[in-house]
Amino acid sequence: MPQLNRRLFLSSGIAIAGGGLLGTLGESGVAEAAPGGAPGTRHLPLHLDGHDIDSGWTFTAADGTTVPGARLASAQPVAGMKPAVVPGTPLTSMIANGEYPDPLYGHIVTDTVPDTLKDTDYWYRVAFPVPRLIPGQRFWLHFEGINYVGTIWLDGTRVGTVEGAFKRGVFDVTDIVAKADGTAHLAVLVGKLDYTDPPSLPSYASGVTRGGRNGGKTGITLKNGPTFFCTAGWDWLPTIPDRDLGIWQPVTWSTTGPIRLTDVRVDPTLSDDLRTADVTIDLTLDSALGESRSVVLRGSLDGHEFEHTVTVPAGAGSITVTPKDIACLRMHRPKLWWPNGYGDPHRYRLTIGVESGGQVHDERTVDFGVRRIEYTKPIQSQDGTPIDCLAITVNNLPILVMGGNWGLDEALKRIPKQRLREQVRLHREANLNLIRNWNGQSSTEDFYEACDEFGILVWQDFFCSTEGPPPGNTTRDLDNIRDCIVRFRNHPSILLWCGGNEGPPPQPLIDGLDALVAELDPKRASLTSSAGDTGKGAIGGYSSGGPYHWVTPSTHFGLADGTHWPPFHNEIGSYSIPTLEFIRKMIPEASWEHPDDSWADRDVNGNGGNGGGAGYLRLTAQRYGELQNLPDFARKSQLMNYECIKAIYEASAANMESAAPGKPYPRTGVIMWMTNPAQPSFVWQMYTHDLEAHSSFYAVQHACRRVNVILDSQTHDVVVANHTRAAVRGTVDVTLHDLDGKAFGRTSLRVGGAAPSDHTVIGNLATRLKSAPSDVAFVRLSFREAHSGERVRNFYWVKNPARAAGFLSLDDMDPAAVSVVADAKHGRDGLELAVQVENIGRSVALMVHLQVYDTRTGERILPATFDDNYLNLVDGESTTVRVRLGADQARKRKDIGVRVDGWAIDQHASRLRGHGVAVTFNQEALSVHPPTKTFGG
């Protein structure tokens, strides 16, 4: 039988005690040398770190013919078991076994996989090696996440249950393993959801997504509480046939001595002046000794070793140590954890263990950050009185939140550590500083570790939404919330806790969450929901609510101009069409030129925004010209993506921090709906499901630069947005070009001192734009700091305010001539390409796009990290793009090329050259003028 192991990551984190059986202890609680030990060995270790149980699993659907758990958890052979992927879901295993194709690519999910997968429980079983236990040693079995209810059996004995997808199970199985003779046999019954709906089906003709209702036909899935309720079908996710049941997180085992650390909480308090930090460590312990015992806490912090003697009570207990007990817990001039773009997200490492008699009973390692967060500032409300509004200050610096919503990390929960890390890294590269973990659907240790590493704050929702009834089991819901808070609270990335999505949960859940945060993590804010806060000391000034469809850039600037309440908007998004190559990958070839239900299954209807997919196509044609074929649709959509999504962030940055006369509501935050796609999609993303960054990504990256110069598309003001802690000075050079690329206006605007963490209006271009000789003007803004070079460029295509023709004339502009020269440099960390792109003609080179590809197969090489893309260059302008490929990619791919496309390129007048890498035109993407129209119908 083949062994399936798709798990590419290790479990870490801090476990809490579950229950189970206690082993026999030596009188002293310290192990002597085991018989047959190596000569000179005094002790064998009591404590062993976590060992993964991630291969050799089998599974089957549970029905009336399945043998009982006691037999499954044994060495006896059982017929009908198939190889399983753990961590994973039943559907993931079935795809790996070849029973079904990947339903997210080239298929309609509900046509490909039967929805009956959700209607059964599933048995999983595995045999795994265990050590010979020595006196005093305890053996623990860890489950990091089972959806929905897991019942655990080991060597014929029922061990216990885990309820809810986000609660861990930790079981003391010492007595069972002591009799195992080197191999233990584990069986897990994964229980199905209590409440389900039939599947929601896609319909392109309807103009809405899967019936226009999120959460299934009735929304009853939400009554389950802590599960992946979005898998019932949402406006960004098809119905997932198994509802992501399964052992979706790691299974591990570890050993301790009689005393176990069930939790380690590290709580740094940073002084107001940021010069000192006091670290408090709260330890929760479980002692199997029958009496109190004196033990030594031994460990290290930032290279400083320490030890401290404490008394541990019998049974469950807790101990707190402070700088009064351990000197190195007082930090002088600590290195701080900063959000992305404001400083280094530094993390300290604490290792702490419990010892006695020369033996380590248990040990934990915790990475943590030192930072202070303030959550509010008074802003005049709609009735004229100041209220405490959500406005984030980190380490005494006001932060404009520029974030992205995650609905789900991946539709089928295929989330190895490296993939998840890449998804978070892309947010750092896009200059974002926050991810909202919508309804907690992406809550894993790997997720928070990546956010810690890359400086991404986390708005952490929990498991309630207004799209259906409230959870039917409040106790289960609160148990999962409690475990999440305890499990993840050491992560500096977590900004706040939030009860749910778009409306208040039932009052018992509101009260329960507030009480849990007050008990377990009182320094963090607790919000009732993403739509508003109703708790004690409520925080105001934020809401969700869209728009979720394409609107003009001026609409976004109008919504964020300081005249509209509230100042913080946590859901606002648009269509986000991927590249031609990805569109062809995600839908069947028969549907490429003819939008249909396959497009609808990839959410092109956007749940009705813009009149659904058909309305969006009409809007694109009205703005940029009739759609001739699929390449033409992909090309024009990149402009649609770029101008709208760029404005979502620039509008807030251009109106942040300071109120202006007649504009009492300065912006404090914006979170785009969405940035990470759970499945291949046409909407709500800034990169694709296979991690290709298309124009939406670079729109975000360009808009969220920490110093930026912005053209307000509503007023045509030129605004300097300065997110840094120091004033900036210099000059903004403005050049206006007509449709032929000729400059018709130039000016320089002085930046006398743009205040830190604020916006500054430095001029207005409305009059100059009206003098444009063509329907469209191109605006180049270049900010040069005093006594230094260019800090930032920005670029816009703008309608002539004196004409009503719009952008249709872009389709008739002369193609641009470009020079593209690529050099390849191999290193230990992979391959770096330096691609110099220059406009060598007269026309503007608009949205020049680079791809790295395999010259043998034509396939894109992903992920590839471009420091810039979708370039806009006027006559004589050039830039160098740096592209990084990881060592594995560089080793596996010997035939690497760079291909070029864009809005309109004169291939004959252009020059391409590569040194160690091929450079070609992307002919398929540039084939936008077929002899006859082929798109639509």
TrEMBL record:
GO terms for molecular function: hydrolase activity, hydrolyzing O-glycosyl compounds. Gene3D superfamilies: Galactose-binding domain-like, Glycosidases, Immunoglobulins. It comes from the Bacteria. Transmembrane segments: none annotated. Residues 392-524 form the Glycoside hydrolase family 2 catalytic domain. Coiled coil: none annotated. Residues 801-903 form the Exo-beta-D-glucosaminidase Ig-fold domain. Residues 260-371 form the Glycoside hydrolase family 2 immunoglobulin-like beta-sandwich domain. Residues 57-249 form the Beta-mannosidase-like galactose-binding domain. One of its GO terms (biological process) is carbohydrate metabolic process. Keywords: Glycosidase, Hydrolase. Pfam families: Glyco_hydro_2, Glyco_hydro_2_C, Glyco_hydro_2_N2, Ig_GlcNase. Belongs to the glycosyl hydrolase 2 family. This is Beta-galactosidase.
